């Protein structure tokens, strides 16, 4: 099937991130992903003589929160992957693929970054809710390069 | 087993006591790094490096129970002391060797009876305790090598180990143990192996228990650059008067 356009539902979303061995994994057990996309600081540059308040965009920021089941599946489980990368100073590749009413394929929207030696994502928090058998991971940017929306796979 | 699970298969051990039968909930199990960073002028985006992590076992909520020796009120009513905690997470069954374990040494900050009706207890824990021996390590998640259970004889040389890494590492780690009950003296240790066949003693991963009848727990840290082979297994050696020991053992591999 070729890439489709239009609307979709969450079940076609795939979450991929590098594991502790720098291998991109499709993480199993993901329940929700929030904060996908850049948000810019709004810098007020209004002068006295201006007729109205006016602004310029500053640096963007990105904080992605991923919630998943406490899953120990070998290599790909939510706990397996995030307990291995939390706090590690190595830039990680990230690929969040949003399939359009079917499994994602090239040409459909994705958000992410292909890591380099200096840029990528890092995991800064991994918190387990034992009672719900769930965990929450937080991802931030490391290095000067911004992740972006695209339509091609990250590696 | 691997995969997903539910809370009823989690256990909470503290200071050589299995509090799972008195606990209703615990957590959240927090492992969060300070986000240190700011963007340079020419950077496309704000960016960060991980700073010091906060590691906390959260709170234990349980039943106010004064059962002699083992009741939660008897075991935990004294706050302001250091507690060695292990929380194995069983995968769709009671915890077994190979399952993930949250461990660490934390200060018990309080002990308060709570609630209406059935009287409960809330026990808040602080962060990683300063007097612990593991400040060189920043991770609390390890692998269970010996699920809580009794052993009545010294280990043999056979028996499969647990693959805790997928390969050799050279960044040490620490073992964490809980001795619940027993008789006499016993030494608990860990062997490692590169092939799950030929095992040798893992340097420094050993603890001598003078009297296993006293509930006790602790952490034994390896050197930060110690080599740890891919496979690990528990061992015990009988000491004077030994006949049985009920214990749980886990290992957290350094990185």
Overall description:
The complex is a heterodimer of chains A (155) and B (255). Chain A has 155 residues and is mainly beta. Chain A has one helix spanning 78-85; strands at 13-18, 24-26, 30-34, 39-44, 55-61, 64-69, 94-98, 110-113, 120-129, 134-142, 148-150. In chain A, a hairpin with a 4-residue loop joins strand 9 (120-129) and strand 10 (134-142). The mean pLDDT of chain A is 96. Chain B is an all-beta fold. In chain B, strands 1, 2, 3, 6, 7, 8, 9, 10, 11, 13, 16 and 18 form a 12-stranded antiparallel β-sheet that branches. A 4-stranded antiparallel β-sheet of chain B has the order 12-17-14-15, with no helix packed on it. A two-stranded antiparallel sheet of chain B has the order 4-5. Chain B is globular, with a radius of gyration of 19 Å. The two termini of chain B are 24 Å apart. The model of chain B has no long low-confidence stretch (mean pLDDT 93). Classes of the chains: A mainly beta (155), B mainly beta (255). Chain A binds chain B through residues 20-21, 29, 38, 59-62, 69-74, 77, 79-80, 83, 86-89, 119, 122, 124-133, 138, 140-147, and chain B through 2-7, 10, 25-33, 35, 37, 39-40, 42-50, 53, 87, 89, 91, 99-100, 102, 138-139, 141, 166, 255.
